[in-house]
Design goal:
The protein is about 35% helix and about 15% strand. Strands 3-2-1-4-5 form a five-stranded parallel β-sheet, with helices on both faces. Strand 4 (about 85), helix 4 and strand 5 form a beta-alpha-beta unit. The protein is built from six helices and five strands. It is globular. The longest helix has 13 residues, at about 65-80. Helix 2 (about 20-30) runs parallel beside helix 6 and helix 3 runs parallel beside helix 4. It has about 170 residues and is an alpha/beta fold.
């Protein structure tokens, strides 16, 4: 069994796009455990995924200082996850990655495709080159870690207890 930490802290749409990736990953690798680090208010999005454990962070009520992020990162790194997949690649997740890598975790990071996007926007005329979707980019992070799988079409159940905040 492999212990995997997935980092995606914010942006509701980007959080939601992790669901098909996690479902497809779980179908291919059912023996892996997934701990998702995200905001507390996004936890209900994953309530139907019984193979995902949420480590919720409350970023909405008060800002978290860099010292608190370091403490969180140290605590997480002490659990020695085998893999850390950063689907966000921001300063906060870089702190977490750093401490986890010190304790031997294998770390893999999202390629946001900034150069490709910039080149597409600067392009004048010619044919349009399609870019990877965010969902595919997320799946690519897992593939970098040696977990190759096909993205599956998903059909989500209606959540019984929906939150007005979501």
């Amino acid at each position: 069994m492999k212990d995997i930490v997935v980092l995606r802290l914010s942006s509701l749409g980007d959080i939601a796009m992790t669901v098909p990736v996690l479902l497809s990953f779980h179908k291919a690798f059912p023996d892996c455990t997934i701990r998702l680090i995200t905001r507390r208010r996004f936890a209900p999005i994953f309530s139907h995924l019984d193979f995902v454990t949420i480590d919720a962070i409350d970023l909405d009520n008060k800002p978290i200082s860099i010292i608190q992020w370091i403490r969180f990162a140290i605590q997480l790194s002490k659990s020695r996850p085998e893999f850390v997949f950063d689907l966000h690649d921001v300063l906060r997740t870089k702190v977490i990655r750093l401490f986890c890598s010190f304790n031997g975790s294998k770390v893999f990071v999202l390629d946001k495709g900034r150069e490709e996007k910039r080149a597409l926007l600067e392009q004048k005329g010619g044919s349009i080159r399609y870019l990877k979707t965010t969902v595919q980019r997320y799946a690519d992070v897992f593939e970098k870690g040696g977990f190759s799988f096909q993205l599956q079409p998903i059909f989500l159940p209606r959540l019984e207890e929906s939150s007005e905040k979501i």
